[in-house]
């Protein structure tokens, strides 16, 4: 139960719960130290969540170093920079990022409430327009939505293969079958699997702790790519795979940092065979398809473990892993509407329309949970020789955020400036840019990326280096 405002939520409150859900040793939390206070403007403890989620991934990295080197390292997390990384880390020089949202995406007033339509992907946009029977013009969409009941429209769009979410209250979500199901799920679910082929310890280098780790990335906006970007930042060879038709131009320069990006269509037999070959040599698989998607392709969890014994299998979805919506398409902005976050934000600021979090915090936080899970999976494999499966969801991260008291930010974040960015120029595929300085520091193990951000499909679907 959330209490009244003016209660300050600490980073460590979140971190203890996150680390416990990851199965970590509670005493290791004391090795984490936070610097540079400040809060994003929100009724929810977004900056504390940002700092804690990044800290959890850093703590997992420190634990990995301790496991191999026999020395536990201190972890320093910058609360202010963490908050900025939850928005955007990139400052283009002489060029502009594409718009983050499609022209008709957004919140609309229906006959009996608010609904959000997510139309960034062409097929999701087509589904909305087909249901509404309107041209792709915002005023036409608004007029059509205004004549409909919000829940009826939500159901019709979802049935047509699109993405939509009615704005519900927190109390209403708590009574909803999906809301009740998610509340009873663990923040991060873990299961040990069979003995793998790579139980020996790697000759791990403290400077690039994940050098030699092969990560196969089957994720889209935004949590999964955040996870694999973090892994790439410590040296992992991340190979992202997208179908030939997929694009997400508004975020690609942000989240392909450090990765190679290739294209495979898993619905095509030849490409699926190539994927199986890649998976057989991978250490980590991170996937963000709907819960039943890989199963329908004949690549369920049992098959994946058979292809790669000892695999660290990390997955996420939007609305949770149990309940009637477990296979529903979803994104951060939709989960904020469904779970009551947008309505609570509206009430807190005295507004008259949905008020989401100032950043897509569910995506980013969940991404760092997934990165921490992958690293803890590596620790588990190094110490036991066994693989593991891990699951998280945006909806369950929302439960974590909502569990803490309302806040009234006491110290606003200092304005971002040029000194917050690295002096190194990143030659991205779109032009030169600067990145925010890393929000995390572990002595001797710098978080940095060996490859600039690149376009989807710019690499071949093969591993790039030899592994331990």
Notes on the structure:
The chain is an alpha/beta fold and about 475 residues long. It has helices spanning about 10-20, 45-70, 80-85, 120-130, 140-145, 150-160, 170-175, 175-185, 225-235, 250-255, 270-280, 295, 300-305, 330-340, 340-350, 360-385, 395-400, and strands at about 30-35, 75-80, 90, 105-110, 115-120, 165, 190-195, 215-220, 235-240, 260-265, 285, 310-315, 385-395, 425-430, 430-435, 440. A 7-stranded mixed sheet has the order 7-13-12-11-8-9-10, sandwiched between helices. α1 (about 10-20) crosses α2, α9 crosses α16 and α16 packs across α17. The longest helix is centred in the first third of the chain and has 24 residues, at about 45-70. The radius of gyration is 21 Å and the shape is globular. The model has no long low-confidence stretch (mean pLDDT about 95).
Would you summarize the structure shown here?
This protein has helices spanning 11-21, 46-69, 79-85, 122-132, 138-146, 150-159, 170-175, 177-183, 223-233, 252-255, 269-280, 293-296, 301-307, 332-339, 341-349, 361-384, 394-402, and strands spanning 32-35, 75-78, 90-92, 106-110, 113-118, 163-166, 189-195, 214-218, 237-242, 260-263, 284-287, 312-317, 386-393, 426-428, 431-435, 440-441. With 468 residues, it is an alpha/beta fold.
* Count of alpha and pi helical runs: 17
Shape: globular
User: What percentage of residues falls in helices of 4 or more residues?
Assistant: 25-40%
**What percent strand?**
15-25%
Mean pLDDT: 93
- Rounded radius of gyration (Å): 21 Å
Distance between the termini: 48 Å
Low-confidence stretches: none
Structural class: alpha/beta
The total count of strands amounts to 16
Q: What can be said about the biggest beta sheet?
A: 7 strands, mixed
User: In order across it, which strands form the biggest sheet?
Assistant: 7-13-12-11-8-9-10
